[in-house]
Amino acid sequence: MLDLTELSFYGSEFDRAAHLRSKFNNTKIESIAKNLIIWRGKILIDQNNFGLVYLSSTHPLIKHSNVPPIFLGQVDKFNYFAHDISNWNPEDLPDNIKPSFIDQTSQSHPDLPFYQNFNDLRFIMTQLSDMEAGLASTAKALFSWHNNNTFCSKCGNETVSTQSGWQRDCNKCNTSQYPRTDPVVIMLITQGNKILLGRSPQWPEKMYSCLAGFIEPGETMEAAVAREVKEETNIDISHVNYVISQPWAFPSSLMLGCMAKAITREITIDQNELEDAQWVSKDVLLKAYAGYDVGVTPARPGTIAEFLIQNWVKGTLTHKK
User: Fold this and answer.
1) Sign (positive/negative) of CA torsion 115, 116, 122, 128?
2) Residue 223 CB partners (closer than 8 Å, separation 6+)
3) What are phi and psi of 28, to 5 degrees?
4) Distance of alpha carbon 195 from its chain centroid, rounded?
5) Peptide bond into 301 cis (omega under 30)
6) Which helix (H) or strand (E) element contains residue 319?
7) Contact 146/165 with Cβ under 8 angstroms?
């Protein structure tokens, strides 16, 4: 039995209530609504209980937003909205923050208590409940889509948000745009008691993970798995099985977790894609999970890569017959 408890964004089942999107389209938010806040892709979190902060509809922070809100859906009949206040410029924000794999900095707003801060969703995703992780990732993905689609792809005219943030319309050529999700295959490649793991140069030291890549137009999931493994490591595979999926709002992917068997062993990496790749045994991974320095650190908790690796180590993930 697969252990789903550690897979972030998987178990969220809030009601998206699509039939209400036209009702709430660009209208005044109802007073009893629950409003979560995003600033430059970061989520407003209560540091005391590591849950989302929900502001009242009359809170001054909501009035500072210069973009339309997004209706996310309903939980227990309450309506949930997301607001983006990225136009706020903190006075104490350092101008020399270096790009990193995960942004561990947090920002506080003067109109909020000191324990309510904006945090990177990657950094805090495992601390949120399934429902709140789903709400936050949906809001983050949608605002990212809006930021990148302010102009019509057909005529170049500026578009406007409609359907409570789930659509953008061009009033010049009447073209509508909808949020996109990009399918990505991520695969656990096995050979006996070893799996194939790779690392990118920008990752934390010693971190290794499953190979992954975008599905191309006209390509099946199975073909994408074989192509990506071949391109990145020159390994040939067979017996591709689908395992599980994970929405990944960084910025807008659906990770399709797969498993396959290797039929060759010698690795030749594509240095444009990977810094290294190697076969890692179950014994080595067990020691890594136990805290020993074995030169390999598995993928981060909450990710689908870590889910695949850990369940394979436990013996709960095996090839279908």
Assistant:
1) positive
2) none
3) -65, 135
4) 24
5) no
6) none
7) yes
**Alpha-carbon 16 to chain mean position:** 18
Task: Say whether pTM exceeds 0.90.
Answer: yes
Contact 109/51 with Cβ under 8 angstroms? no
Cβ neighbours of 265 (radius 10 Å): 12
- Provide Rg for the chain, Cα atoms: 22
Write down the H helix ranges in the chain: 60-63, 121-124, 130-147, 221-233, 282-289, 304-314
Q: Can you tell me which residue has the tokens 């039939």?
A: 19
Bond before 251 cis per omega within 30 degrees:
yes
Alpha helices in 109-187 (DSSP H): 121-124, 130-147
Strand 237-248, strand 194-199: pairing: unpaired
pLDDT tens digits along 87-145: 998 877 666 566 667 888 899 999 999 999 999 999 999 999 999 999 999 999 999 99
26 token code pair: 């660009």
Q: What is the pLDDT of residue 170?
A: 97
